[in-house]
Design goal:
- The complex is a heterodimer of chains A (401) and B (165).
- Chain A is mainly alpha-helical.
- Chain A has helices at 2-27, 32-43, 55-76, 79-84, 86-110, 115-126, 130-139, 148-208, 215-235, 240-250, 253-280, 287-315, 320-329, 335-347, 353-372, 378-391, 394-400.
- Chain A has a single domain (57-373), classed as Na+/H+ antiporter like fold (Up-down Bundle), CATH 1.20.1530.
- Chain A has 17 helices and no strands.
- Chain B has 165 residues and is of the alpha+beta class.
- Chain B has helices at residues 58-83, 110-114, 149-159, and strands at residues 6-10, 14-20, 26-32, 37-42, 50-56, 88-93, 117-123, 126-129, 142-147.
- In chain B, the strands form two sheets. Chain B has a five-stranded antiparallel beta sheet with strand order 1-2-3-4-5.
- Classes of the chains: A mainly alpha (401), B alpha+beta (165).
- Chain B: This is K(+)/H(+) antiporter subunit khtT.
- Chain B: GO terms for molecular function: monoatomic cation transmembrane transporter activity.
- Chain B: It comes from Actinoplanes friuliensis DSM 7358.
- Chain B: Residues 77-161 form the RCK C-terminal domain.
Chain lengths: 401, 165
């Protein structure tokens, strides 16, 4: 009984503290993710107030948090959106992968880490945070902008790519080597393609199994199905997160819409626990030595994201201001980078990876949304206009000659 | 004359519709999955970005559509008025105490008595165009009539139950 009461006190105090932090963050227009990570650092081993009784609870909660993050991501997209987008957005997605995954991998080799760690770091620097970016676009009133579909399609491609990348990393980190990784990848490709085909053809049939009218039954059946499939996927070494993502994609129509509303508060709760857990498993004492490398990596990969955005939106015929907005908007890394790092930490691949990933995500997720506001300032606009004006006379002059 | 409306899917959010007006401005609407709509006004200098994005609820969007749609109809009526000098258009609310609430349009014999025509009835934000003689009036109906000044005054009087002539 005694340990249960301590657990209640610890979890209660933790959640309350997170609530207060989130409130402070919102006042400054800050995403709560960095605050949760910092809270985790403070409460973890070697932190200010180490938690004792609730560690196991938080660990399980974190696992559920990842699954809920991914199922909600899947619910946001319909299968036809994922596939329909593919052909037109594939070049942008490829540029994105090359420009952002390779610097991460290269950086890992530079630090003298093994190829497993390089694979993990490549994923961490590659994937932008769909959640943070969608929120920033909404907050800045840019949903109607012409570059927004470009940004969203890059995010969609990244999220879809994760369905193949996560099983690969899961298998490689489990120590099965490249061949085992290839096998897991093949299983994942087959599963994802099968789910997409079934979801496009029979999505309504799957969704009609689940009643929309009864909120309680809907909550239990969607949550149950998601956890079950995630568990089976993990058992098959395909990664629980991907299993959950696929459940989200397979559900469509009113079921998806209502499930999004019902699951959102649960996701907010457990996702917060997940970010805290990641902070918890990082020793704050390990942070100072990796701050400079993390800063360097952040600056490098934020620049490559800007370049990605500029190239991707230039292809779509968007003018210079819009290209810059695209690049700056794509900078924040968040939940996915932490999910990937979490996999690496669980398998103990490189002890410095967790603090590096924490610092890296902290830097990009705080500075990214702030830098995304830059194009809205008048001085920035006039600067860009001047540059465009300098470029413009070149055309008529040569034409006159 | 037809206006081209462009549709762009926004994966994970909804769909965007936009059109370029003849004055060169771009306006658009983002329809979110959850029914929210944003009205968009685009920047003149930088047509890729929107100057303002105004969130509208279902009801607000419907009300705005009504205002825009209704003004279109009244504009067409105004055009008719200009073509024939001396012809006027007027919206006449059916008074609550009118003897014609629940009775048919034919019973008013408005056209015979005043030579003004009842061309439309506005009911519950809906337009009922060219109602026939068997059309039945309800309380809160608004009658749109076309005629001379005298004729319209006559229609107003008839609907009020004031059968002076």
């Amino acid at each position: 009984m005694h340990s249960t009461t301590i657990l209640l006190i610890e979890v209660g105090a933790l959640l309350f503290a997170l609530g207060m932090l989130g409130r402070i963050g919102r006042r400054f227009g800050l995403s709560p993710i960095p605050l949760y990570l910092l809270a985790g650092l403070a409460f973890g081993h070697g932190g200010v107030i180490p938690l004792s009784a609730s560690e196991e609870f938080i660990e399980v909660g974190a696992e559920i948090g990842v699954i809920l993050l991914l199922v909600m991501l899947g619910l946001e997209y319909s299968a036809s959106e994922l596939v329909g987008n593919l052909r037109s957005a594939a070049p942008a997605g490829l540029i994105d992968a090359l420009f952002n995954a390779l610097p991460g991998a290269g950086f890992a080799f530079l630090l003298g880490w093994g190829w497993e760690a390089a694979l993990v770091l490549a994923g961490i620097t590659w994937v932008s945070s769909s959640g943070v970016i969608a929120k920033v676009l909404g907050d800045l009133g840019r949903l109607g902008n012409r570059e927004t579909p470009v940004i969203l399609s890059v995010l969609v491609i990244e999220d879809l790519a994760m369905a193949f990348y996560l099983p690969l990393v899961t298998a490689v980190l489990a120590g099965v080597g490249l061949l085992g990784g290839a096998k897991a990848l093949a299983v994942a490709v087959l599963t994802v393609v099968a789910v997409l085909v079934v979801a496009i053809r029979y999505g309504h049939a799957i969704s009609s199994f689940i009643s929309v009218k009864d909120a309680e039954a809907l909550l239990l059946s969607v949550l149950g199905l998601t956890l079950f499939v995630a568990g089976v996927a993990a058992e098959l070494k395909v990664s629980a997160a991907v299993g959950a993502f696929l459940v989200g994609i397979a559900l469509s129509g009113p079921v998806a819409h209502n499930a999004t509303q019902i699951l959102s508060p649960l996701r907010d709760l457990f996702a917060a626990v997940f970010f805290v857990f990641f902070g918890l498993s990082t020793d704050p004492a390990a942070m100072p030595p990796v701050i400079l490398p993390a800063l360097g990596l952040a600056v490098l990969t934020m620049l490559t994201k800007v370049l990605t955005g500029v190239l991707a939106s230039r292809r779509a015929g968007i003018a210079l201001p819009g290209q810059i907005r695209t690049g700056l908007a794509l900078m924040p890394r968040g939940e996915f980078s932490i999910v990937i790092a979490g996999l690496a930490v669980a398998s103990g691949v490189e002890p410095e990876l967790a603090p590096l990933a924490t610092a890296y995500v902290l830097i990009t997720v705080v500075s990214g949304p702030m830098l995304a506001r830059l194009p809205d300032y008048t001085w920035f606009k006039s600067m860009v206009r001047k540059r465009m004006a300098v470029q413009r006379p070149v055309g008529p002059v040569t034409a006159a000659e | 004359m037809r206006v081209r409306v462009e549709q762009t899917p926004l994966p994970g959010i909804g769909v965007r519709h936009d059109l370029i007006t003849s004055s060169g401005r771009t306006v658009g609407v983002v329809s979110h999955r959850n029914g929210r709509r944003d009205l968009l006004l685009y920047d003149v200098d930088d047509p890729d970005s929107c100057l303002a994005s105004i969130p509208l609820t279902d009801d607000e969007a419907e009300a705005l559509a009504d205002v825009l749609g209704a003004s279109l109809m009244l504009g067409q009526l105004a055009g008719l008025r200009q073509q024939a000098a001396g012809l006027l258009t007027e919206q006449i609310a059916l008074p609550a105490g009118s003897p014609f609430v629940g009775r048919r349009l034919g019973d008013t014999r408005a056209r015979t008595r005043t030579s003004a025509s009842i061309v439309a009835v506005l009911r519950d934000r809906e337009v009922i165009a060219s109602p026939g003689p068997s059309f039945q009036f309800d309380a809160n109906d608004v009658v749109v009539a076309v005629g001379t000044r005298e004729g319209l005054n006559g229609v107003t009087a008839i609907l009020a139950g004031d059968t002076g002539d």
